[in-house]
Amino acid sequence: MARLALILGAFVAVGPLTIDMYLPALPALRADLRTTSAAVQLTLTGTLVGLAVGQLVIGPWSDALGRRRPLLAGTALHVLASLLVLVAPNLAVLAVLRVLQGVGTAAAGVVALAIVRDLFDGRAAATMLSRLFLVMGIAPVLAPTIGGEVLRFTSWRGVFAVLAGYGLLLLAVGASRLPETLPPERRRSGGVRGTVRTYRMLLRDRAYLGLVLVAGLSMAALFTYVAGSSFVYQRQFGLDEQQFGLLFGAGAVWLIAATQLNPVLLRWWSPAQILVAATCAGALAGGVLLTLAAIGTGGLFAVVVPLWAVLFAAGLALPNAPALALSRHGEAAGSAAALLGAVQFGVGAAVSPVVGLLGNNAVAMGGVILAALTLAIAVLVGVVRPWQLPEPHEDPAPAFAH
């Protein structure tokens, strides 16, 4: 299982790398392309839109064809888009290529979740997802730092050359090492009509839909940090690109620590209980950030500490919300994971430019985080009703299909 977690984590990490590695370059990219901060953040939105839409297509595709082929095809598209960025002449072309990068990256996210659901359920699934977050958590820790170091020797385009090289490495590893986990007798067909029927069935499940929304709103809090941190740390507090990369990586450590605490907590509490506690704690931290930033006290310290608390809460919420949602629909794991991922990154795409429109400062970040997690609490109470969720069935013994 350690090898599987490592392989899946490496694939899933391409998403955070694609999103985070060029964050230190956003101010330089804005100056090079002679545009605004809000317009530059639309390139991040484009990636998230591609991730959201791509998952809706790739999820049912993986239910019909198996997991390997969609995963490798998406990774190849990501490599191609990354190489084309090297010659992108303007912001419009860059934004389109970022959408294509997102579509390619979507395959890694949705197929990895589907593979976990093929093999695990309940607490075992939440534990495996926590292990995945440990592996993929290295990506947001290292990505801005790598990006900052790349910028020492080249322009922002060099970041995308590194991404292309990483994608080529993933293609080689996936083709030779990743097993097929969906045997032919469990595959679903039916074309467009079958896909529509599956999504209709998923959308009629109130608890599943609520859990998907909670996962999306938790991801929105995380992407608020991703979208706004480079401007807050560099423009508002005067850090350089390398200092930003180190501070961003230090924040990601809290996210990783929470994901690795999660399996320990699951020995005593259910995934639903941990999800509720984490969402409430994250909302409280967002309120503290907004308050301190609004009154202008504490400087950088008053921004960093509440943000780290938000990241810690997200690290507890993000493995448990998907585990609970996917446990309800093992018969359509690819489609269920696709809808989950589409909502997560769709909400992230909607939130990213909002931070820019509100000023790209600590007050904007705190306000958006608080709003997202307060809404998540409302969905938990009013829609999911976690006290009514059954204890998920446990199936800790995986069986690979070849």
What does this structure look like?
- With 402 residues, the protein is mostly helical.
- The protein is 81% helix and 0% strand.
- The chain contains 15 helices and no strands.
- It has helices at residues 2-12, 14-20, 26-33, 37-65, 68-85, 91-119, 122-153, 157-177, 191-203, 206-236, 241-265, 271-295, 299-326, 333-357, 362-384.
- It is globular.
- The two termini are 16 Å apart.
Ordered list of secondary-structure elements with their pairings:
Elements: H1 2-12, H2 14-20, H3 26-33, H4 37-65, H5 68-85, H6 91-119, H7 122-153, H8 157-177, H9 191-203, H10 206-236, H11 241-265, H12 271-295, H13 299-326, H14 333-357, H15 362-384
Task: For this entry, give a set of tags.
402 residues, mainly alpha, disordered C terminus, 81% helix, globular, 15 helices
Count of beta strands: 0
Largest sheet: none
Helix content: over 70%
User: Low-confidence runs (pLDDT<50, min 5 residues)?
Assistant: 394-402
Structural class: mainly alpha
Quick gist of this model?
With 402 residues, this protein is mainly alpha-helical.
